[in-house]
Write a structure and sequence with these properties.
Strand content: over 45%
Mean pLDDT: 85
Helix content: under 10%
CATH topology: OB fold (Dihydrolipoamide Acetyltransferase, E2P)
Strand order of the largest sheet: 8-1-2-10-9
């Protein structure tokens, strides 16, 4: 039997996404974020998180989903990998689910070239895209972004 993995399930733009629960540091109500110049299109802005400035990712822009008005019920998911810290703007957090490796499909079978989607599984009759946080922003873009943040 394959080892089960825990995922945080959240929704944005009508699509469900999953993050490895081990990478999720905290979930916060939406707060004001600072806009900045010279940022990639899918970076919504910068969040001051306990003195640490981190980029906020807008998945609507990453996945070219329909724009929507922001709401006070929106959430920020603070996630940390070995390589970077990001905040993801989410419409709603739906919960935590465990999936075995056999239940997760290889994303490249469906999304050839989308390296930031590392797997797909079914949850409540909907498809969940598992995000690879280390690949949302290339190393080059990330260094450039942090250079602008720290000025």
């Amino acid at each position: 039997m394959a080892k089960a993995n825990s995922f945080l399930i959240f929704r944005e733009g009508g699509q469900r996404f999953g993050l490895n629960l081990a990478e999720v540091e905290r979930i916060e109500k939406c707060v004001e974020i600072e806009d900045m110049a010279a940022k990639p299109e899918y970076v919504k802005g910068i969040l001051n998180y306990h003195g640490e400035l981190i980029p906020v990712i807008d998945l609507r822009r990453v996945f070219q989903l329909k724009e929507r008005e922001e709401s006070l019920s929106d959430m920020l998911i603070i996630a940390r990998t070995a390589r970077r810290v990001l905040a993801i703007w989410a419409e709603a957090v739906e919960g935590i689910v465990e999936k075995s490796g056999e239940e997760i499909e290889d994303a490249q079978r469906f999304f050839l070239g989308l390296d930031y989607v590392k797997g797909i599984f079914k949850f409540a009759d909907k498809t969940v895209l598992i995000n690879d946080l280390d690949k949302f922003i290339s190393d080059r873009e990330f260094k450039k972004l942090y250079k602008v943040i720290n000025q």
